[in-house]
Fold these 2 entries.
Entry 1:
Amino acid sequence: MTDAAAPCPARIERTFGPIRALDLALYAAASGDHNPLHLDPAVAQAAGFEQPLVHGMLSMALAARVLGDHFGTQALADLNTRFTGVALVGDTLFFIAELSRYDDQQAHYRLQARTQRQGEVLAGQASVMLPTPARGRLTVPVR
Amino acid sequence: MIDRRHIGFQTTATPVQVDPWRVRLFCQAIGETNPVHWDAAVAAEQGHAAPLVPPTFLKALESDHCSSALLLQRLNVPMQQVLHAEQRFSFHHPVLVGDVLDISRQITDLYDKRNGALQFIVINTHFCRAGKRVAEGVQTLLVRLPAQAPAAEVTA
């Protein structure tokens, strides 16, 4: 388990889903991405997929929540995601954020999301601003 | 091949307002339950003048200014061959509900791999408020030749 009280956990795990068709309809309305591959099972099947595809940007929004729920939305300084695979309606997304390094201001995490069905669907990095008390502690000389 | 003379093309910045109702809907869509994104009192307690937008909501604002589909039309690239390969956001200052952001997009790179079989389009997006840069986005699109292009994540 991750220690939620630590300013800079070594690892954060989150699970989202299963992703429903309703989630994709809501995301399409909110984002303006109405591509039928995300909404119409027939179009998805014609393209060779059993179910509509989860918007890559929805996966990225969930990646932002992995860090934002822990550090606060405003702490996120940088988020970079590569869409390395495809998640489908019905899939559950398993996110892992692993601390790669930190300094007195920011913590840098490696991100990965996987589904049970296909493996990795997203990989990337995130940088978060550390809370001021942590920064203060780190700058106090150790005696 | 996409003509490299398009590198450097930049849209004229237009103002885009952050609509509270749309932010609320976006939160619903991504399962965001933190009221700092819609409750002004909660936002004020945390020192913000208005509710905070979720980080990747910037993509929706960017599309309001100029969708990637429109830029692809300019490059004469069919949407069906395009995958959203990578997305980055850098956040400099919080974006708040009610803000009016001046948004512009620029094609910053066009390159290929595997002797042109895979072509990449890099688009930077600048988000400014009152002349000050608040965030930047970098979108990388992958264009695959038809013979090798089973449809996948097609861009907005």
Note: Chain A touches chain B through 37 residues (CB under 8 Å).
Entry 2:
Amino acid sequence: MKKKQTIKNIVLTLFVAVCAVLFVVPLWMVIINSLKTRQEAGLFGIGLPTEWAFDNYITVFKEANIGLAMGNGLIYSIIVGVCAILFASMASFAIVRIKSKWSEAAYYLFLSGIVLPGAIIPTFFLLTRMSLINTYTGIIVVLLAMTMPISVFLYTGAVKSIPREIDEAGTIDGCGKLRLFFSLVFPLLVPTTITVAIFNFMGVWNDVTTQLYFVNADKWTMPMMVYRFMGMYSSNWNLVFADLLLTSIPVILIYIVGQKYLVSGMISGSVKG
Amino acid sequence: MSPIFSAIYEPRNGLLNTFLRSVGLDSLTRNWLTDPNTAMNCIIVMSLWSGVGMTMLLYLTGMQSLQKEYYEAAIVDGANYFQKLTRITIPMIMPSITINVVLSLINGLKVFGEVYALTNGGPNNATEVFGTLIFKNFGKGFLGYSAAVSLVFTFVVGIFVFVLVKLMRKLEVEL
């Protein structure tokens, strides 16, 4: 009985290990090939490079406009992140606390934003009419509209778990509505805020559709730049891989830092929502 | 992360073909992305690779919140592994399953970046999805047609998700 158990465990462990290796191989290929010379990277081997070529990264920095792309990405993700946190938390506070059919309708309106795809053409015309096409403001507004639904969804779940007594205590002590929200409710929402921030950062950072439609190349962020770079340097796979790795570093960092909050926020939002 | 996969599927030296050659399956090597029969499967594998992590995370948290007592009770009642799986684990993580199924369906229907980068609608329209169809017509200047496609797209997604959520909610157990 005991022996059977251990054999079973070994088989299971092996199976999991094989699956894990299958998942890691592509990543490993990127990392290792980004350090090879051009000829060697063209073979896509997964062995160690015979000649370490760290200057790939320097070349990429010079050629691929990384500075501009990273700057754009940071501008979008920070502004969108802050605005989404501010607006979504206030909106969901109102949605939860005001009991009327309008607030319910507003909630379902936001929810439908998660499910339904964005309408590209009307947005395009709207932005053109407002002369916001190909501007930072324009793309930030569109990205904000894209990130709001999931933010509101997560915040609503969190606000529901805050007891109403806290609001009442605040009102008795003479808090105004704004003061009540910012000094009593918002501090309690910090874990959800972190989740929302990570979600929005990753969403905005990885987004390609919006940029493709609404702005020109000088306002693109890193994923779009990688596509363009790949078109320009398709025979220099070492440079493409280096660019790719640089693109994913911020996301990976943020993910490692915030992983704990990400999951807990997701669960509390989705279960109570 | 599509460039990684265009490197893997690369016909001459790509990882997949190299692997197949090295284990002696030369007959299976092909131009993965330009062959209409395989292009879609290639994209599916890639989406799977990038999507599985998040899905697994959700299942993991769902399972971590299960209580040990249920399993102890089941063992006392003489349940075997399979019964424990079907009678306790799956019903208890049904909410996670619902979320995962719905999210995967939405992401699958809305896929654009991957297809755009790998095949852009691909050989002979074999990998055409709503996203690339809208983008192509937008690029050609057929704005009305492309708006119509996105409206149909909206309805399709809406109907699918609505029906699916209704069905999945029925499967969940009340505690």
Note: Chain A has a mean pLDDT of 82.
